[in-house]
Amino acid sequence: MLKKPQTLIALTLLAVLLILYAANSQFNPESDTVTIKQTPKTVAADLATPPDSDETQTSFIKISDERPTKAPKDVRIDSLDELMALFDSLNYNTQSWQQGNREVPRLTFESVSERWQKTSNQIPVQQKKMVFFRLLAPLILVANENILLERRLIETAPLDDAVLQRIALKYKITPDADTALTEAQRQTLLEEVDIMPPSLVLAQAAEESGWATSRFTVEGNAFFGQWDFSGKGMIPKQQRKELGNYGLARFDTPLASVEGYMLNLNTNNAYKKLRELRASLRADNKPITGMELAGTLDKYSERGQAYIDGIRQMISYNKLDQVDEAYLSDAAPLHLIPRQD
User: Fold this and answer.
1) pTM for this prediction
2) Adjacent-strand bridge partners of 248
3) What does each C-alpha distance from 42 to 63, 66, 337 come to in angstroms?
4) Cβ(290)–Cβ(197) under 8 Å?
5) Which H/E stretch holds residue 215?
6) pLDDT tens digits, one per residue of 221-250
7) Given 6, 73, 98, 151, which residue has the most CB atoms within 10 angstroms?
8) Maximum distance among all alpha carbons in the chain?
9) Do 147 and 194 meet the contact criterion of CB atoms below 8 Å apart?
10) Is 247 helix (H, G, I), strand (E, B) or coil?
11) Rounded distance, CA 201 to CA 311, Å?
């Protein structure tokens, strides 16, 4: 038999279990059954922002629990017509978009081909823009999804969690990956680890890469004109000596370029105003838009206000604000492989 202290402990544990069970159960007196409440999973469709919403976009808050985890399936694309046919098969076309569908397939690709650089000016301007935006948008949404996953961990992990410490080092909050964070550092990290509105990213990518036709985009997947002072960058033909030995940063893939751009805006002191405005909008549950954040990018280019005006005009003219409500599909990802030149 159990001794008295052991009996008390056992009874206490049993009571706790019954309370937990009851909290997640619902008793039906008519059928004498107990139904366990299941927390509904979030799926892609749940990420759609309601029409005319004046709150933070749903896809900037939630992540689908049904997002795919398998490696992408390779799909060979031998022509622009085949690419258009693929978009149609995925319901990722102008008609669907105009009907209000904001679901975007998970598409990736390795690089921009020289063929695009040579022939993109031979196709209608609207089609050229459409191809650019439709191929870049999935990468931006994937990068944002990864950032939201980091935010989720930052919000809940113990301050001495190893993964949290690595994230803090990545965002330059701590000097090494072995230092436990303070609560104040957690809050600073949450201000830095946050999404970028797709409209802003698309507009800057188009501006900085010349619609993916620049030499640096083709040679090194450089979509955003980020500088590199490590000596490994791509050297411009006319290097400004007063800036030292610099080049344009190269990236292994277009997705890596998008992630590098976001990390730059999320860590560089030049863009602190952007991060503060974004944090304020999120705290007030207001939409986080590219049009608004663009106003903080006076230090992204020597052109200052003229650069800001150009980015805003790009967003407005091409109706990129609609992409700020886009969200990723739960369908299996596809990796596009172009025909060899």
Assistant:
1) 0.87
2) 227, 234
3) 7, 7, 31
4) yes
5) helix 215-220
6) 999 988 887 777 787 766 665 556 678 899
7) 151
8) 89
9) yes
10) strand
11) 10
